[in-house]
Structures are given as C-alpha cells and as structure tokens.
Amino acid sequence: MSLDVMSGEGGGDGSGEGKGVTMRVEVDVPKCVASGQCVMIAPDVFDQREEDGIVVLLDEQPAPELHADVRESAVVCPAAAIRVVEK
Ligand code: SF4
C-alpha cells in the first residue's frame, strides 16, 4: 500500500517557490481581447469561450506548481487582463 502524499519536494529545478504561498487569480473579462496567450501557457488555469475566445478562469487559486505559468500569462497578456495576487 502506498500513501498518497503530495510531497512535491526535491523537484530539482531550483525554483525556490515559497512554502504555503497562496495565489489568487483575477481576470478582467471585459478587457480580454481573446488572444489565447494565457491558455497556451497555463491551460489548467485558463480556457477560452467557444463562441468568442474570451478568457474563462478555471482555477482561481492554482496550485504552487502552476504559479510560474500564471505569472507569465499575466505578463504576456496583451490586454493586461490578468491580475495575480500572492500572499
Ligand atoms: S492572454 Fe489576456 S487577452 Fe489573451 S485570452 Fe488570456 S486574458 Fe484574454
């Protein structure tokens, strides 16, 4: 039997993510220009509406391993529609 523990330690790529850092993601939907950048970078967190490509936030509080991708999405978003709050 194995214990299903999400240890995540010792991954080895040296990105010293803080422990217990909470990320909260907000999208300003009216600003979105449907470029899809965020969806390409962080598909677990962002999706696009079928009809017009406008962003859909899938995960308001993404897991730590997704934080780097979410930050990058916010940086590359051409409409600056993604806001990331970290505590
Ligand atoms: S990157 Fe920005 S503009 Fe493009 S789909 Fe995502 S939120 Fe919308």
UniProtKB/TrEMBL annotation:
InterPro entries in UniProt: 3Fe4S_ferredoxin, 4Fe4S_Fe-S-bd, Fe-S_cluster_ET
Cofactor: [3Fe-4S] cluster
Bias (Gly residues) ranges: 8-19
Database matches in Gene3D superfamilies: 3.30.70.20
Region: Disordered, residue numbers: 1-20
Keywords, sorted A to Z: 3Fe-4S, Electron transport, Iron, Iron-sulfur, Metal-binding, Transport
Domain 4Fe-4S ferredoxin-type: 23-51
UniProt function note: Ferredoxins are iron-sulfur proteins that transfer electrons in a wide variety of metabolic reactions.
PANTHER family: FERREDOXIN
Protein name as it appears in the record: Ferredoxin
Species this chain originates from: Streptomyces rapamycinicus
